[in-house]
Amino acid sequence: MSLYLKNATFIDWQDLSFTQTHIKVDEGVDGSIELLDELPDSNSIQDSKIIDAKSKLVTKSFGCGHHHIYSTLARGMSAPAKTPQNFVEILKYVWWNLDKNLDLEMIKASALASALYCAKNGVTFVIDHHASPFAIEDSLFTIKEAFDSVGLSHLLCYEMSDRDGEEIREKGLWETDNYLRAGNQGHVGLHASFTVGDTLLKKAVILATECNTGLHIHVAEDLADQTDCLKKYKKRVVQRLKDAGALELKGSILGHCLHLEKEEIALLKNSGSWIAQNVESNLNNNVGLTDYSTYGDNIMLGTDGMHSDMLRSAKASFFVGQKTEQISYPGIYNRFRKVHQYIKENDFKGDGDNNLVILDYNPPTEINQDNFLGHFVFGIESSHIDSVISSGKLIVEDKKLISGDEIDILNFAREQAGRLWEKLK
Ligand SMILES: [Zn+2]
């Protein structure tokens, strides 16, 4: 069944041109759209869904380059008994305590609630990095099922590490292997250099090579990652990854990359690896900020699990970027949209032209091709997202999820959050 958007103002996400048009949206993964001067006669489209997009803006939907659905049920939970004094303590007292208590029901609730928020925020492609050391088996399949039910495209991975011993490490490899070999697109996930020994790193690179994909790993998020690497391996993190063959893999994603030296930046620039920038998380964890302008072009934006709103991430990155690199309007828009290049260049599926947002944005000033970026930075927010189309299917209409039941999802999430918080007491 085709979908028609009539009387739309279509903004081409690449050249920012504005076209008054009707749009025919084909359904299916990597489907296309057609701009029409006139709608076909009503008889021939009587079985199609037609949305009146008069006075609305229609443009390509968004992607998230680094998410953690596993943190969804943390919102509002009690602070840890001991107050963390640094980044590694934040991991130990908060996140590693939370992720060890997740079971498959909680993971399902986390994924459904995150998918709901992504959908409503116009994020139709999610790259996730998941951890649940005592519920690894089937975790990726559980997240996939939740994302698929809401209608989002995705690249999933399990963040393996040595922090919980050999048996759990092997389970991570097993789940990743099963998931990727079942034909699912995704990454081989690793937590970070300081929790990944050489054996695991080697196995991860072999698995990624066999499955024709990249690693997804945090890199130098805190200085502690570099200190640990220098102490244990007498080299810096990016050098360690390069020596292990990780930078030669197809489409590896390195989260953060805050504390790199010039030589490491040069290594990254000359590789096919991508960086995911997450400034709100960096501010929250007080781990530092960096000037990404010297890092080359393969940088995209993520949320690091803080939320599921990429317009918010773009704005935060713009304001922080004023301090760190004097980023321009085109600079931040380009970085916000880089995820599409990442997906395309690495042959992943699910980010075709038939992924769209319909914005009900009625500004107090003129909006056109020439000043769109000023509206992007200072005006357009996720609250303006009226409807969302993912792979040609309408998943959000009039600000309501229609591919699932919002109330049921949130009730289920609250019930599972209650169970999780009880376990954390
Ligand atoms: Zn992260």
Write the layout of secondary structure elements.
Elements: E1 3-11, E2 18-25, E3 33-36, E4 49-52, E5 57-60, E6 62-67, H1 87-100, H2 104-120, E7 123-128, H3 139-150, E8 153-155, H4 166-181, E9 188-192, H5 198-210, E10 215-219, H6 223-233, H7 237-243, E11 253-256, H8 262-269, E12 274-277, H9 279-285, E13 299-301, H10 310-324, H11 329-345, E14 356-359, H12 372-378, E15 385-390, E16 393-397, E17 400-401, H13 406-424
Parallel strand pairs: 1-4, 1-5, 6-7, 7-8, 9-10, 10-11, 11-12, 12-13
Antiparallel strand pairs: 1-2, 2-3, 5-14, 14-15, 15-16, 16-17
Helix pairs in contact: 2-3, 2-13, 7-8, 10-11, 11-12
The site of zinc ion has 6 residues, from loops.
Question: Could you characterize what this model shows?
Answer:
- With 425 residues, the chain is an alpha/beta fold.
- It is 38% helix and 19% strand.
- It has 13 helices and 17 strands.
- Helix 2 (104-120) packs across helix 13 (406-424), helix 7 packs parallel to helix 8 (262-269) and helix 11 (329-345) crosses helix 12.
- It is globular, with a radius of gyration of 21 Å.
- It binds zinc ion (ZN).
- Zinc ion (ZN) binds next to loops.
Query: What pattern of helices and strands is seen along the backbone?
Result: EEEEEEHHEHEHEHEHHEHEHEHHEHEEEH
Give the names of the bound compounds.
Answer: zinc ion
Mean pLDDT over all positions: 97
Question: Strand pairing plus helix content: what structural class?
Answer: alpha/beta
Count of helical stretches: 13
**Radius of gyration from CA coordinates:** 21 Å
Number of strands: 17
End-to-end separation in angstroms reads 50 Å
Runs with pLDDT <50, length 5+?
none
The fraction of residues assigned to DSSP E strands is: 15-25%
- Percent helix range: 25-40%
Biggest sheet record: 9 strands, mixed
- Subunit arrangement of the protein: single chain
